[in-house]
Amino acid sequence: MIRTRTWCLLALALIMPLAHAADHCRAGEVAYFACQTRAKKLISLCGAAAGKAPSALHYRFGPPGKVELEYPSASAADSLARFSYNEYTRAMTYYVDIGFANGGYRYALFKRYDGTESPVTDYGVSVTAPDGRDTTIECVGKTTQRLPELAPVLHCDKEHAFGCPGG
């Protein structure tokens, strides 16, 4: 009995680190979105938890252990106001975007589920340059995704093609 329980605990200890994607979140922050790209860089949206809803959000991008882009800066007091939330739903389709603008570029962390043909869920970040060129960086492997939890605390971008939740 003790031997079986020891093996179960060991197996659980080995599996637990695989339960979420690697991220750039700091101590005390929650990963609302985290994944790795084909280029082995991490995409992270981290929230400073204050109860159930975040009191701040930060986007971080770069290889493990090195943040190449952080938005907004760690000292920004109004970080939640800098992000927007949009979603689109219909039968067997669900899209969510968390967007922000930085230096003339528009970023959108996304979850795309389309079950109309063959069920596929895609995650990543799309970046629109000032000249309108779009680049999509897709996630590979395990993705942590809690974007819908941000809907109550972020404003909706009414200009976005998806529209606003519940409206």
Characterise the protein shown here:
The chain is mainly beta and 167 residues long. 8% of the residues lie in helices and 49% in strands. The protein contains one helix and ten strands, in the order H-E-E-E-E-E-E-E-E-E-E. The protein has a ten-stranded mixed beta sheet with strand order 4-3-2-1-9-8-7-6-5-10, with no helix packed on it. Strand 6 (93-102) and strand 7 form a beta hairpin. The longest helix has 14 residues, at 2-15.
Provide a concise account of the structure shown.
With 167 residues, this protein is mainly beta. Helices cover 8% and strands 49% of the residues.
The largest pleated sheet is described as: 10 strands, mixed
Tally of helical runs: 1
Shape: globular
Based on secondary structure, the structural category is mainly beta
Low-confidence stretches: 1-19
N/C terminus separation: 56 Å
Total beta strands: 10
Oligomer state equals: single chain
Radius of gyration: 18 Å
Summarize the helix and strand pattern as letters.
HEEEEEEEEEE
Portion in beta strands: over 45%
Q: Indicate the mean pLDDT.
A: 85
The residue fraction in helices comes out at: under 10%
Strand order across the biggest sheet? 4-3-2-1-9-8-7-6-5-10
